[in-house]
Design goal:
Largest sheet: 4 strands, antiparallel
CATH class of one domain: Mainly Beta
Mean pLDDT: 79
Shape: rod-shaped
CATH architecture of one domain: Sandwich
Low-confidence stretches: 8-22
Number of helices: 1
Distance between the termini: 159 Å
Helix content: under 10%
Length: about 250
C-alpha cells in the first residue's frame, strides 16, 4: 500500500513539471531542453499518445516522452492509483522552478510601406521678400505710328430754344443739352405762356455757358375797400419759352 502511494506521487510530480509547455499540434506539448554542450536550448515536441499517460525521461536517449498506463492503473482527478486497491490522494507536489529565458530571436523583416497620408492643411503665406535692386534702364522704344484722326467734334450751338413748365414756386433751371464754348455767356430770352389775365414778371440768374435759371412772379387784380389793386399770386407756375443765343 505504501509503495503504491509513493509511485503515484512520483508520477504526479513529473506530470506537473511538464504541464506548462506550449502546444505544437492538436494537444501536443513543446518544452525547451538544455543541449549537451550546455551552451543553448533545444525545443522538444512530444506527440500526444492515443491513451492516457504521463511524462517520463529516458536515461539512454536523454529525451522526454510519454508512458501510457498499463492494466490495473488509472488516473482519477490527477492521481495515479491501482484499479483494485485505490490509494489515498497524495499531497500536491512543489511547483518546479521557472526555466531559463531563451536567446533573442533574429529581427523580423522590414514591414511593407504604409499608405500615403492625407494632404496636410495649407500653410500660412510666407513673409514678403525684400524689394529687388532697380533694373537697368531699357533701350528707347521706337516711335509709334501716328494715330488715326478722330471724328469731327460737335459744333458749338449758336441758338437754343426750349418750352418748359416752372415748378409751383415759378422757378425753372435750364441746363443746355449742348453747352456753349467755355467762357461764352449767351444772350437769353424769356416769355410766359398763360391763358389767364394775370401779369407775370420774371428774373434771370446764374447765366453761364451751360444754362441759366428763370424765376416768375404772378400778379392778379384784387379789390380792397372798393379799390382795385394788384396782388401777388401764391402759385406762379406757368409754361415759359426760353432762348439762348451766342453773342
Amino acid at each position: 500500500m505504501k509503495n503504491n502511494n509513493l509511485f503515484a506521487r512520483i508520477f504526479v510530480v513529473m506530470a506537473l513539471l511538464f504541464a506548462g509547455a506550449a502546444m505544437a499540434g492538436p494537444y501536443d506539448f513543446i518544452f525547451m531542453q538544455r543541449n549537451a554542450a550546455d551552451n543553448g536550448n533545444t525545443q522538444r515536441v512530444i506527440a500526444t499518445p492515443a491513451t492516457t499517460g504521463f511524462f517520463t525521461f529516458n536515461a539512454d536517449t536523454k529525451l522526454g516522452g510519454y508512458t501510457t498506463l498499463g492494466t490495473g492503473l488509472q488516473i482519477n482527478s490527477g492521481v495515479l492509483s491501482a484499479t483494485l486497491v485505490p490509494g489515498p490522494k497524495g499531497d500536491s507536489g512543489t511547483p518546479g522552478l521557472n526555466g531559463t529565458n531563451g536567446t533573442d530571436g533574429a529581427p523580423g523583416a522590414v514591414g511593407a510601406k504604409g499608405d500615403t497620408g492625407n494632404t496636410g492643411a495649407t500653410g500660412q503665406p510666407g513673409a514678403k521678400g525684400d524689394k529687388g535692386d532697380k533694373g537697368d534702364t531699357g533701350a528707347t522704344g521706337q516711335t509709334g505710328q501716328a494715330g488715326a484722326q478722330g471724328p469731327a467734334g460737335t459744333p458749338a450751338p449758336t441758338t437754343l430754344r426750349l418750352r418748359a413748365q416752372t415748378n409751383a414756386a415759378g422757378v425753372y433751371t435750364w441746363t443746355f443739352a449742348t453747352p456753349f464754348p467755355v467762357g461764352t455767356v449767351p444772350v437769353v430770352g424769356v416769355s410766359v405762356e398763360d391763358a389767364t389775365t394775370a401779369s407775370f414778371n420774371h428774373s434771370v440768374s446764374n447765366v453761364t455757358n451751360t444754362g441759366f435759371t428763370v424765376t416768375l412772379r404772378k400778379t392778379t387784380a384784387v379789390t380792397l375797400l372798393g379799390i382795385s389793386v394788384l396782388g401777388v399770386d401764391t402759385n406762379p407756375q406757368a409754361f415759359v419759352h426760353l432762348t439762348a443765343i451766342a453773342p
